[in-house]
From TrEMBL:
<protein>
    <submittedName>
        <fullName>NUDIX hydrolase</fullName>
    </submittedName>
</protein>
<dbReference type="Pfam" id="PF00293">
    <property type="entry name" value="NUDIX"/>
</dbReference>
<feature type="domain" description="Nudix hydrolase">
    <location>
        <begin position="1"/>
        <end position="138"/>
    </location>
</feature>
<dbReference type="InterPro" id="IPR015797">
    <property type="entry name" value="NUDIX_hydrolase-like_dom_sf"/>
</dbReference>
<keyword id="KW-0378">Hydrolase</keyword>
<dbReference type="InterPro" id="IPR000086">
    <property type="entry name" value="NUDIX_hydrolase_dom"/>
</dbReference>
<comment type="similarity">
    <text>Belongs to the Nudix hydrolase family.</text>
</comment>
<dbReference type="GO" id="GO:0016787">
    <property type="term" value="F:hydrolase activity"/>
</dbReference>
Length: 149
């Protein structure tokens, strides 16, 4: 199974940027932006930058490795490399890819939440391994994520 990246993204007000996912036939859930590594991606950070541009129209700075999590998924092991980063810009008009071209994939609503543990524990945030990390590290994120522009 191809590895994935996730971007724990903080905006200028140090709020966490999440997706509220509404998919036909499923309960609403939340996720941190990111996606699978593609063969043409030169690095994990390159994958992260590509995914954030596709999903959010975002550019970022201060990219910082936070944790790598692995868990059972569909008779395999899924690995996700979680990076912290800071939002430089976001233009929803730049969003593109299958997530936005195929209505059956549902809605990706961008939501910004305060860095409070309850913001994680009261939402159905997936994958659970990333939610567990965030619930323990949420208030420390501003110190963990780089400041370099």
């Amino acid at each position: 199974m191809r590895p994935s990246v996730r971007g724990v993204l903080l905006d200028d007000d140090e709020r966490l940027v999440l997706f509220r996912r509404t998919v036909p036939g499923r309960d609403v859930y939340w996720s941190v932006p990111g996606g699978h590594v593609e063969p043409e991606d030169g690095s994990l950070v390159g994958t992260l930058r590509r995914e954030l541009l596709e999903e959010l129209g975002a550019t970022v700075f201060g990219v910082t490795p936070l944790i790598t999590v692995s868990y059972a998924w569909k008779d395999a092991v899924k690995t996700q490399h979680v990076f912290g980063c800071r939002l430089a810009s976001m233009d929803p008009e730049l969003r593109h890819g299958p997530e936005f071209e195929d209505p059956s994939r549902g809605v990706y609503e961008v939501v910004r939440v305060p860095l409070d543990r309850a913001e994680i524990t009261t939402r159905h945030l997936v994958p659970e391994a990333v939610a567990d990390y965030l619930s323990s590290a949420i208030t420390h994120l501003p110190r963990l994520i780089g400041q370099d522009a």
